[in-house]
Amino acid sequence: MRFMRKLIFLPGALGAAAFWHPVGGRLPAEWQKVYLAWPGLGAQNPDPDVQGFDDLVRLVEDELTEPSVLVAQSMGGVVALRAALKHPDKVQGLVLVATSGGVDVARLGGSDWRADYRAEHPAAARWTTDDWPDHTAELSTVTAPTLLLCGDRDSISPVAVGEHLASLLPSATLHVLPGGTHSLAVDLPDGVAAHIRAYVA
After folding, report:
1. What CA–CA distance (Å, rounded) separates 83 from 40?
2. Which DSSP letter does residue 145 get?
3. Which tens digit of pLDDT belongs to each residue from 84-140?
């Protein structure tokens, strides 16, 4: 067994725990799975104790009661990397799906999603779109083995972003899934789950 088989699933800016259910349901039943939601993001109810990325990291920390693999979508990848940098002893592995990873995606050809998100979710916390960290300088210190998954039809985090992250993270493997958009785990749950099984096993 490569890892302890506790997987903590982190959503993207929509904040919904259910985003990961199709993939999680395709993974072995004996693996422990925790699905987090982000209060105040997307259509999720707010929580006055959640006011930024550090508070999302705290929600992850609450579940890091044993060495775990973080499986993260899009913005969740930023949270996962922050947790991995802070707790290298507890974050045993990373699966980053369609994520920016805290790098400048616009420079790498990524489209700006923030206006559409704000129009669709006007009540979402402002920091969701206004306060994005840049972790480029820190990524070389991430020790967790990392699986990067991206879709070749993702306009928000295009393949170039995955390639850039793979060049910065010391122990990263990149897989490009044909036909995948930014909602890669919804588009192709079988393919995403297969890659996670191979990574964790």
Report:
1. 20
2. -
3. 999 999 999 999 999 988 888 888 999 999 999 999 999 999 998 887 788 889 999
Whole-model pTM over 0.85: yes
Q: Where are the beta strands (DSSP E) in 66-130?
A: 68-73, 91-97
User: Quick one: tokens of 172?
Assistant: 């990263």
Q: Spell 87-99 as b/e; 16+ CB within 10 A means b.
A: beebbbbbbbbbb
Q: What are the residue ranges spanned by the domains of the chain? A: 6-200
- The per-residue DSSP string of 5-20 comes to -EEEEE--TT--GGGG
**In Å, how far are 9, 110, 140, 193 from 180, measured between CA atoms?**
19, 15, 27, 14
CATH superfamily, region 6-200 = Alpha/Beta hydrolase fold, catalytic domain (3.40.50.1820)
- Find residue 146's DSSP bridge partners: 94, 172
Contact at 8 Å (CB) between 47 and 39? yes
Strand, coil or helix: 190: helix
**Phi and psi torsions of 159, nearest 5°:** -55, -35
Mapping DSSP to helix (H, G, I), strand (E, B) and coil, where does residue 146 land?
strand
Length of the chain: 201
